[in-house]
Amino acid sequence: MTLDGFDHEKTARIVAVNWTALAEDEGKRLKALGVDEGAEVAVIHRGIFGTRDPIAIRIGRMTIALRRSHALAIEVEPA
């Protein structure tokens, strides 16, 4: 399951990231923020319009916003 489809406020563990689906600079930024295999994340907010962008996730003590296209590249499993 991808992060985009994961339930709101439930904790997930990142099992894989499709780095080739992301631009190189976007991948570097996400890695620098701790988005990588093994990290625990939770979706805490979704945009309200048709695309549901952006998606806010909690990773550690940080809250970061992702585009839906980024969330589609992140595969997760329930933690």
Main sheet characteristics = 5 strands, antiparallel
CATH topology: SH3 type barrels
The helix-and-strand class reads: alpha+beta
* DSSP strand tally: 5
User: Strands of the largest sheet, in order across it?
Assistant: 4-3-2-1-5
Condensed summary:
The protein is α+β, with helices and mostly antiparallel strands. It has one domain (3-74): Ferrous iron transport protein A (FeoA) (SH3 type barrels, Roll), CATH 2.30.30.90. Helix content is 16%, strand content 37%.
Task: Describe the fold and architecture.
It is a single chain. By secondary structure, this protein is of the alpha+beta class. It has a single domain (3-74), classed as SH3 type barrels. The protein has helices spanning 24-32, 68-71; strands at residues 11-17, 40-46, 55-59, 62-66, 74-78. Strands 4-3-2-1-5 form a five-stranded antiparallel beta sheet. The model has no long low-confidence stretch (mean pLDDT 92). Residues 1-78 form the Ferrous iron transporter FeoA-like domain.
